[in-house]
Amino acid sequence: MPEEIIQVNDGYYIRSTSAHLDDRTRVLKHGDTFAVFDRFGDIEVFGTGELGIYHQDTRFLSRLMLKIEGKRPHLLSSTIRSDNIILTVDAINLDIGRGDEVTVPRGSVHIFRSKLLWNGTCHERVRIHSYAGTSVDFHMSLVFGADFTDVFEVRGTHRPRRGKRLPARADNAAVRYFYEGLDGRARCTHLTFDPAPTQLNEGEARYDVHIAPGEEIEYRYAVACEVNDMALDEGTYSVTNRFAADTPQRYDAAVQDATTALDHARAGDPNVFTSNEQFNDWLNRSIADLYMMRTDTVHGPYPYAGVPWFCAPFGRDGIITALECLSFYPELARGVLTYLAAHQADEESAANDAEPGKLLHEARAGEMAAVGEVPFKHYYGSIDATPLFVMLAGAYYERSGDAAFVRAMWPHVQRALTWIDKFGDLDGDGFVEYARRSEHGLVNQGWKDSFDSVFHADGTLAEAPIALCEVQGYVYAAKVAAGRLAAALGDETKAQALANEADVLQRRFETAFWCEDLSTYALALDGDKRPCRVRTSNAGHCLLTGIASEDHARRVAATLLADASFSGWGVRTVATGEPRYNPVSYHNGSIWPHDNAMIAAGLAAYDHKAAAGKILTGLLDSSLFFDLHRMPELFSGFHRRSGEAPTLYPVACAPQSWAAGAVFLILESCLGLKVQGRRGRIVFSKPYLPESLKRVSIRRLRVGNAFVDLLATRHDEGDVGVNVLRRDGAVEVVILK
C-alpha cells in the first residue's frame, strides 16, 4: 500500500495523540470529494483527527456539530445506505429544562439526519418530529469551522508555513470561508442554510424551534467546496468575490441525481448471488465500495485507493483492484490502463523517482504536493507498478479481445518493458530492484512500503538496492503477457524473445530466492545479494504470477497455511517467530485482504483449491464482525480465538479499493473462472466451493456482445457442477475437471 505509517520520525507517519472514542466512522465519497464523520454525523477532533469534508486533498470543513440546547442529542443509530450514497442518523433529545423543571422530556423529539456528497457539495437534511403531548420550544444549532488543512498535514506532516486565511463572510443564510494557498489557488467553503437561521455568525447557525404535537419540521444546509486559480496580483477583495454566491441544488435533487448516476453506471453489470447471506452482505458492500471509490477521470473510471489517507490515484492499487475485478468489471481495467498510460514518465527526475517508461505510484492535487513540500504531485517511487501495468494490459486483452485498444496500449507496454530492462535492473544481475533517489521519497517501494518491512533473519534492515521476490514474479508474468500481446499483434520475433527472457528469469529466480530449510522464497535480496531469509506473504504472489516451480509452489502453500502464517482469519504478512513480527504492525504481521486474495489466486493456479477455500472462509468469517460488512484495508494478525472477533488495526482505510476487490478474485479463483473474451468463451477449471458456499449464481456475465447466466452448485461429495441457465449470443462455456 501507499506511504509509510509506522516509523514515528517518518515525514508521512499518521499521527495519533489519543484513542478513538468510537472507531466506527461514517464515510461518503463522490469524485474528488470525501467526508469522514463520527457516528452522530458530526465532525469533531479526536484520535488521528481525520474527521472532515475534504476536496482535492484539502479539508474544507474541520468542525460540524448539531446540538439541541447546547448538547449533542442521544444517538439511536446511524448507517450508510447499502449503495453508499446516503448517511442516515437517528437521534432523540435529552431532557430539556428551565431551571429544575424538565420542559421537554427525553425522547419527546426525534431528530433524523440524512446527508450525501454530490459534485463537491455535502448536502444534509434534518427532520425534527415531535411526539410530545404539547407544543415544545428549544434551540437547535449547527457549530462549524474550516481550517483548509492539507491531508498530509492532517496525517501529521509538519509545515514550515501555510497560506493565508481571509476573513469569513456571513449573511442571513450563508457563510463563506476563504483561504489563499501557497500554490496560487484560492479555496472557499460555502455553507448555505434553508430556511435562514434565526441567528447566524461565522461559526454557528442557530434556530429557535417551536413545534406542535405530531408536527415535523425540516431544515436543510449544504457545504460546497470551491477552488479557483489566483492571478499573481490578485487582492483579497477580488479573491473573495470571484467565488459564486449561488445556492447549491436542493437536497432532493442531489439525491435523485446521485441515484440516477449510480444506476446508469451499474446498468448491465453482472449479478452475483450465493446461498450464504453473510457472503452476500460482504459481496454487496464490496460492490458498493468499488463504486464509491471509482472516480471518473478524463481517461475513464479509476478506483482511488482508500479513505481517508489515500483518496487519490495510486498506480499499484488501481492495477491490483482492476485485476481483482477483471472478470466481472473489465471497464475498470480499461480506465486504469488509459489513465496510467497518460501519466507514464517521459524523463528522469530524481526528485520524484521518475525514469522514462516508469508507471505512476501516486498523484496528488493538494497544496503541499503542488509546492513540493511532499513529492507526491506525480510520484513514481513504485518498483512494481510498471510490471503490473504490463500484466494488466495482457489480462485485459484476454478478457476483452479488444485488439484496437491493445494496439493503442502497445507503445506504452514497450516503454514499460524498456524501463524494466534498462532502469529496473540497477546492477545488471537480471533482477529488478529499487533504491530511492528522491530525498523525501519512499525508502521501500514494493507494496509493503513501511521503512522496516524488508529485513534479514536477525532483524537488521536490508540495504538497497533491494530485489523483492514478488517483483521478480511480476516481471516474469509481465514478459509472458507481453509476449502473448506481441504474438497477437503479429510480432513473433518479439514474442519469442520475451518468452525466452521469462524462462531465463524463472531459472535464475529459483536458484537465488529459494530457501530450502524455510520451504519458501526469500523475501528479497539486499544490495549485497544476500537473501532476506524470513517467512512472509510475499512468496504467495510468486504463485500468482506462475514463476514458482510445481514442487516449490506446493511447499510454499504448506508454509502459508501453517499456524505461524495463517491466523485463522487470513495469512499474515510476516509469520510469527520472525524477528520483526508484530500483529499490530502495518506490514510485519497484519492481515491484508488484497494480499490474501492474491495468495488464494496463486494457490488455485497450482490446483491447491482447498487451501484457497480456507482463505475464503477465513475472510468471510471476519467480514461478519466488520462494521457494515466492509472489508478494511488491513486488520491485526492475532491468532483467531474461539467466539471472538478479529482485532482491528487502528488507522486502516475503509473503504479501500483493493480490499473491496478481494472478494471477486477469491471467488473467481476457487471456481477456476476465466472469461476469455478473445476466444468467446468462459472456462471453469476444476471448480471448487468451500462448505460455506453451496450455490453461486452469476447472471448477465458479459463476453463481448454475449451474455450468460450460470449456476455453480456444490454437491455433498464436494464436487461442483456448473449449469448454463441462459445464453444470449455466441459464447462457449467450458468446464475442465
Topology:
Blueprint: E1 26-30, E2 33-37, E3 52-55, E4 58-61, E5 63-68, E6 74-80, E7 87-92, E8 96-98, E9 101-104, E10 109-118, E11 121-130, E12 136-145, E13 149-150, H1 151-154, E14 164-170, E15 174-180, E16 185-194, E17 199-201, E18 204-211, E19 216-229, H2 236-241, H3 251-266, E20 271-274, H4 277-293, E21 294-297, E22 300-303, H5 315-324, H6 330-342, E23 362-363, H7 367-370, E24 378-379, H8 385-400, H9 403-424, E25 467-468, H10 469-488, H11 492-513, E26 514-515, E27 520-521, E28 524-525, H12 538-545, H13 550-561, H14 593-605, H15 609-623, H16 657-660, H17 662-671, E29 673-676, E30 681-685, E31 695-703, E32 706-714, E33 720-728, E34 732-736
Parallel strand pairs: 30-34
Antiparallel strand pairs: 1-2, 2-3, 3-4, 4-13, 5-12, 6-7, 7-10, 8-9, 10-11, 11-19, 12-18, 14-15, 15-16, 16-19, 17-18, 20-31, 21-22, 23-24, 25-28, 26-27, 29-30, 31-32, 32-33
Helix pairs in contact: 5-6, 5-8, 6-8, 8-9, 8-10, 9-10, 10-11, 10-12, 12-13, 12-14, 14-15, 14-17, 15-17
Short précis:
The chain is 29% helix and 26% strand.
Please provide a written account of the structure.
- The chain is of the alpha+beta class.
- It folds into three domains: 26-260, Beta-galactosidase, Chain A, domain 5 (Distorted Sandwich), CATH 2.70.98; 268-671, Alpha/alpha barrel (Glycosyltransferase); 684-736, no CATH class.
- The protein is built from 17 helices and 34 strands.
- An eight-stranded antiparallel β-sheet has the order 6-7-10-11-19-16-15-14.
- A hairpin with a 4-residue loop joins strand 29 and strand 30 (681-685).
- Mean pLDDT is 94; it is low at 1-9 and 16-21.
